[in-house]
Records
---
Amino acid sequence: MKISNIVSAAAIFLLLWCMACEENPFDPNKWSTLSHEGFVLKWRVQDSNLEVELKGPSTGWIAVGFAGSYGMHDSNIIIGYVNGSSVSIRDDFGIDSDTHVSDTDLQGGEQNVSGKSGSEDSGVTTIFFTIPLDSGDLYDNALSEGQSYNIVLACAADGADNFASGYTTITNTSIKI
């Protein structure tokens, strides 16, 4: 058997295998995924935006903070909860290691979250949202594709469907955008 026949057969096999896969490994829109201490974070860059899905182990609020210095401090925090059919998601800023406030409560801050949706199922809250990689907002850290960033993941107690309850779980890790 000629080398060219072997290469052709291998290429056809690879193509058929990829077509049978649920996700195309060559798809530029493929999501990156992190599972960490009960949270699942999925993200992908779409044009100049970051699309995000966050699942957290609570029926209260869940949150992810991007590019902070430690804990919540200096993080661009996206926090959300689901109450019945209502989904609330807000753009916050970490003013210290365990406190955050809405960007609009800070002088010059803006809400820069779009594409908001969410659900609750079997004790897990899921929120979906889109943020600009660089909103220009003083309280949103600019993100760049290909760079690594510290993130914070947090959630409140079950039923804490508000932005004011304290967290029951908080953890830090990092991701590459």
---
Amino acid sequence: MNQKPRFISHEPLRFEEKEIISRSKELLELAQKRRSIREFSDKDIPFEVIKNVIMTASSAPSGAHKQPWTFCVVRSSEIKRQIRAAAEKEEKESYEGRMSEQWLKDLEPFGTDWRKPFLETVPWIIVVFKRAFEYENGEKHQNYYVNESVGIACGMLINAIHNAGLATLTHTPSPMNFLTKILDRPDNERPYLLLPVGHPAQEIKVPDLKRKSFEEVVKVFD
């Protein structure tokens, strides 16, 4: 029998126009300072911070409110070592044979290669898994818009990490099935994204890149 929808009172944020503009500008200025970082300090981060940024991500909207994500938090030096070894194996094969010449050329401005020492340097790694379906009483139940939902959550997670004054990198060694084995995940979960989380190294340089302008990314229909 279908359940009758249950609704509760909600008090949304309400600001005057001047404050709306100010708050939107402040967030834009903060976001514009975000950069992907590949050199990290080993300085520790309180677990409370990791919990807060993950629960911020977990507040994301999702298809039918299924919340189809699992966040695996890794602090263990041994597990980080295993992840680095497996990731570098896949990355080495990609750089030396899987990637097209055009792909390698597009990566040249970043100065990257298959070596990923940051996977052991950072105090924390967050591995995001998407939940393709759920088990309920031994039966499979569908999740909806899984990729879209988990993608939104990951975007919120990256922003929350940056807002806390920390650095991260969207790392997607392909294939990523080794993460399922190392972290002993069930068969309804698929690795989606790996995020090293930490303070940037003391001396840090990033590629000289320019983000697209408003006119390049927006079409206004007034």
---
Amino acid sequence: MAVQLRLAALADEAQLRLLMDKSIRALLKPYLGDAGVEASFEIMGLDTQLISDGTYFIAQIDGQVVGSGGWSRRSTLFGGDHSAGRNAALLNPATDAARVRAMYTDPNFARRGIGRAILNACEAAARVEGFMRAELVATLAGEPLYAACGYAPLEQMTSVTSKGIAIPLLRMGKRL
């Protein structure tokens, strides 16, 4: 099973949205239940700024999209195009941490190294641009991967959706 990574293009948007929907519905359900999964779409999803910035990767096996994820030199910690509180301000690599963002894996390929491959590519690209640290916001489903890859908890967070459903999150960080 050879995982191939490439940068995403805006033409990939429909495939990425399908992957994200499938990933969120299957991988978060054991942690959030049906109502929490549905509410989580309010704070998760595709951020096309990452694609435009050339920092969003697609993982493929035999031409099939099996994962995606990226990193950012911008202030926004998490969320999609539709999420509130976005901030496109550029970060300073000398003082700020790069943001690892929008990591999704096809549930049929979970726990096979897809997320780790994408995360490694994100970290390498951020290092090339001078970042010495990376931060991310993990879901309960993603936390074990990030911890296994050296990310440490920085802050427990909760995002409360417009329907009043609390989505637990964990801000994590790592020295690159």
